[in-house]
Amino acid sequence: MASEAEKTFKRFAVFGESSSSGVEINNKNFSKLCKDCGIMDGKMVTSTDVDIVFSKVKDKNARTITFPQFQEAMKELGQKRFKGKNPDETLENIYKLMEGKDPATPGVTKATTVGGVSRLTDTSKYTGSHKERFDESGKGKGIAGREERSENSGYVSAYKGAGTFDKKKKESK
Known about the structure:
By secondary structure, the protein is mainly alpha-helical. The protein has eight helices and two strands, in the order H-E-H-H-E-H-H-H-H-H. Helix 2 crosses helix 3 (47-57), helix 3 packs antiparallel against helix 4 (67-81) and helix 4 (67-81) crosses helix 5 (87-98).
């Protein structure tokens, strides 16, 4: 059970932190873990409780906690969340809440399709010069779709023998 909790700990430790190795978690991500996993319920365990427990288990001048310190924090939060149960049982219940959870990013990946938006963004219905900006799948061509690009092959545009110079040169050798 602890290995699943450790995986969740690492996923939240690296969330939003490009320099993090997943060994230590900061207070922001610790609070996010507690909120996203349902440990912080707003009644028994509040955000203030989570911050106090984080400050209690971390080293004096540190800004992060390691996994053993995290386990200690979960024991304390478990006592608040599940009152009247023994410490081992509360820790197991906390780990069950954490099982398989990932950091949530609400509203980031959703695209709006309200009213006529889907009709306006359907590239198959585009006409004129706008039609040239997208391929058959609807993916944009980038600069090639916006500008008239010329070939820089060295031949004039209507020349039929383009690309034959090297062949003639090889044949003569």
